[in-house]
Amino acid sequence: MQFEAYISLAVYFLAMLGIGLFAYRQSTSDISGYILGGRQVSPQVTALSAGASDMSGWMLMGLPGAMFVTGFDAMYIAIGLLTGALANYLLVAPKLRVYTEVADDSLTVPEFFAKRFGNKNASVRMVSAAIIVLFFTLYTSAGLVAGGKLFESAFGVEYMWGLLITLGVVVSYTLLGGFLAVSMTDFVQGCIMFVALVMVPIVAYMEFDSMSAMTGAAYESVPSLSESWQEMSLLALVSSLAWGLGYFGQPHIIVRFMAIRSVNAVKTARNIGMSWMTVTIIGSLGTGFVGIAYSNAFGLDVADPETIFILFSQILFHPLISGFLMAAILAAIMSTISSQLLVSASSLTEDIYRVFSNKDVSEKATVTIGRIGVAGVAIVALLLAMDQSNTILSLVSNAWAGFGAAFGPLVLFSLYKKNLTHKAALSGIVTGAVTVLFWIYAPVLDGGKALSSVVYEIIPGFVVSITTLWVVSKFDAEPSDKVENMFNEASNELAKQQA
């Protein structure tokens, strides 16, 4: 890659570190500012921060790669995600913003789960915090794999050095500025991703004489949309669409709803966020589809399908623009890693250290402990990411299913079912997570295959968790008047703010 491209990347790195330094001076004096930005985040930043932290490196690498390999089958994942994201804005965002504040100003998702039942140190808090650290470490490793592949493919840098560079920059600004730095960098990164995913497929398409020439070249390798629909099994279709169920339980996404400045700002965030997501997903799928056609028509050798965006960036653009497009991939990767590191550190600090520690820790010391947590999770994720054979999409799909099944049903029940009990919540989390892990790793089918090869693990996990929540709540003792009063207070406060 030429010198101009490195200039673009250097400017990007400096900008991210500058934002981290600015946020350090603005919002890290207390733990609320470090974890939630003081609940004063604008709807614009909330929308793009949620989108950028959600989509990560799989938007520019994993999803185009899936489209390149499977053709239109990958489109159904996108449809499921769009539907799930919209449902998350409608069903979860307003209620969660109000309820977490009514529940004694809960700063983390596990803390909300506990205070929802009138006990800040309830066992559901510890269990959910442990699941967050477990699955986010896996999730963070997926982002590092994407960063390692980027530097290896685009810059000829060894995979290990790519991991270290990616981790070094993102840990620096996350350690410095906390939630505000993560949200502000996500906003910038979301803008970069938007431009890149509009630009790349359009420029690649312009290499063909017509749409028919492009589609004809693509159909040499993959079936048409109608043929894909006919050949796709019902289980495969349901598994792809079921990705949308994961949104309700993703801590790094729903924490944005807790931090937005007001309930009335949620609608603006929803409109911006869904528009951004629709355009970028279409661009991601378009990159993969045009990549199929381009490789067939012009003999482009694509050794790793997940690098098709990188290849287009290198062969179709001026080096200065190419550097900008590489920054877009880094933006996608870093936005998610930073969010996951911060949520993990928040759980380690607020939900594990504070619960077990008998010491009266100052706000400043708590922020320091949170920074140590960021570094600790980052190191473990780095060790996992050293296995270069991992694919980005597979790592993301496993972690996405784990959170979706463990937390998604509980989030919905917590917000909408008054008589939900603590015992039911704890049982729902455990059964959802265990079901997903069993589905992924238990070699119960012929040839030692796991059940995830038949149907996406989020489906059984979600069903088992919902069933457990409902049945245990039905037969458990009714929650206390204090818990019911808190539920009613949150409902009344939401109605008042929406009026």
Automatic annotation (TrEMBL):
Q: Which Gene3D superfamilies match?
A: Sodium/glucose cotransporter
Q: Which PROSITE patterns match?
A: NA_SOLUT_SYMP_1 (PS00456), NA_SOLUT_SYMP_3 (PS50283)
For this record, the Gene Ontology CC terms, alphabetical, are:
plasma membrane
Q: Name one Pfam family in it.
A: SSF
Q: Which CDD domains match?
A: SLC5sbd_PutP (cd11475)
Determine if Cell membrane is one of this entry's keywords: yes
Kindly list the places in or outside the cell where this protein is found, as annotated in its UniProt entry.
Cell inner membrane; Cell membrane
Report the main location listed first in the record: membrane
In the bilayer, the protein is annotated as: Multi-pass membrane protein
The residues that cross the membrane are 6-24, 74-92, 126-147, 159-180, 187-206, 234-255, 276-295, 315-344, 365-386, 392-412, 424-442, 454-472
Q: Name one GO molecular function term.
A: L-proline transmembrane transporter activity
Ion transport among keywords: yes
One GO BP on record is: proline transport
UniProt entry keywords in alphabetical sequence: Amino-acid transport, Cell inner membrane, Cell membrane, Ion transport, Membrane, Sodium, Sodium transport, Symport, Transmembrane, Transmembrane helix, Transport
Which reaction(s) does its UniProt entry say it catalyses? L-proline(in) + Na(+)(in) = L-proline(out) + Na(+)(out)
Q: What does this protein's UniProt record list under function? A: Catalyzes the sodium-dependent uptake of extracellular L-proline.
**UniProt similarity note:** Belongs to the sodium:solute symporter (SSF) (TC 2.A.21) family.
PANTHER family named in the record: SODIUM/PROLINE SYMPORTER-RELATED, SODIUM_PROLINE SYMPORTER
Protein name per Swiss-Prot or TrEMBL: Sodium/proline symporter
Natural source organism: Alteromonas halophila
Which gene produces this protein? opuE
